[in-house]
Amino acid sequence: MTIIAPSILSADFAKLGEDVREAERCGADWIHIDIMDGQFVPNLTFGPPVVGAIRSYTSLPFDVHLMVNTPERLFEDLKKAGADRITVHAEACLHLHRTIHAIRELGLKAGVALNPHTPLSVLDHILEDIDLALIMTVNPGFGGQSFIPAMLPKIRDLRGRLDAKGLHGVHIEVDGGINGETAALVAQAGANALVAGNYIYGNNDRASAISTLKNSAKA
Questions:
Q1: Could you tell me the residue range of the domain that residue 29 belongs to?
Q2: What CA–CA distances, in Å, run from 98 to 89, 155, 157, 160?
Q3: pLDDT tens readout for residues 129-186
Q4: pTM for this model (two decimals)
Q5: Strands of the 3-6 sheet, one edge to the other
Q6: How high is the pLDDT of residue 1?
Q7: Is 169 labelled as part of a ligand binding site?
Q8: Which stretches of the chain are DSSP H helices?
Q9: In the chain, which residues have pLDDT < 50?
C-alpha cells in the first residue's frame, strides 16, 4: 500500500491544527513536517513547539524531515513534542551512522534524505540501520517546485539495492513535485511513501487529491 504524507509546509499556518485534522479525515497516512533552519536551506519554518502544538489534532504518525545543520540538537525536543520518525539529510551529518543511532535510541524511526545531487553510495553502509530513505525529487527548501525526472533511475536503483539485501521493510519516500502524474512514475520506480504539499493543500477537494495519488500509485 502506498503511503500518502501531506506536507504541512503547504497548509494554512493560521489554522495548522485544523488542516492537519482534515488531512487525516481525507485519508492521509502520515503527516509530513518540514523543519528548516534558514542555514542548511534558505527557508525558515517550524520547530519542536509547533510540532507539539499540533500533536493533539491527529493520531497519524508525524514524519519529521529535518533540513537543518547539526540535526541532533533537536532530537530530544522532537520526541517530547510527539514525532514518530525523524529523517536527517546525509549532507548535514558529519557522522551519519552515529546520528541515525541517536534517533533510534530515543525509540523513534530513523530516515536519511538525499538531495538530488547526492549519490546512493552514501547509504551503502547504513541501509540495515534505517527505516526510511527519502529521495528528494526537487532541491530542498521551498514548496511548489517542479519534479526532477532524472531522480527516477535513482529510485529504481535504491529499490534494487534494498530488495537485494532483503530489506523490504525500509520505506522509499519521495518529496517534491508529486501530483497525479508523477505519483505513478515514482511508484513504478519503487517508492512507497509519497510526500505532497501543494497538490493536496492547494486542492479544494483534498480527499479527492489524496485518493488520486493512491490510485495513480496503483496504476
A1: 3-218
A2: 13, 25, 25, 25
A3: 999 999 999 998 766 678 999 999 999 999 999 999 999 999 999 999 999 999 999 9
A4: 0.96
A5: 3-6, 193-196, 171-175, 132-136, 109-114, 85-89, 62-67, 31-36
A6: 86
A7: no
A8: 16-25, 48-54, 75-81, 96-105, 152-164, 180-189, 198-201, 206-218
A9: none
For residue 144, the SS3 value is coil
Residues with catalytic function: 34, 175
C-alpha cell at 130: 534505517
Ligand-binding site membership of 176 (annotated): yes
Half-sphere exposure of 66 (CA within 13 A, CB side): 28
Cβ contact 96:117 at 8 Å: no
The domain that contains 90 carries what CATH number?
3.20.20.70
- The DSSP secondary structure of 79-117, one letter per residue, reads HHHT-SEEEEEGGG-SSHHHHHHHHHHTT-EEEEEE-TT
The torsion defined by the Cα of 123, 146, 194 and 174, in degrees rounded to 10, comes to 0
pLDDT of residue 145: 76
Q: How many domains does the chain have?
A: 1
Tell whether 211 is in a known binding site.
no
Q: Which residues of 181-190 are buried (b: 16+ CB within 10 A; e: fewer)?
A: ebbbbbbebb
pLDDT of residue 219: 73
- Asked if residue 32 belongs to a known ligand binding site, the reply is yes
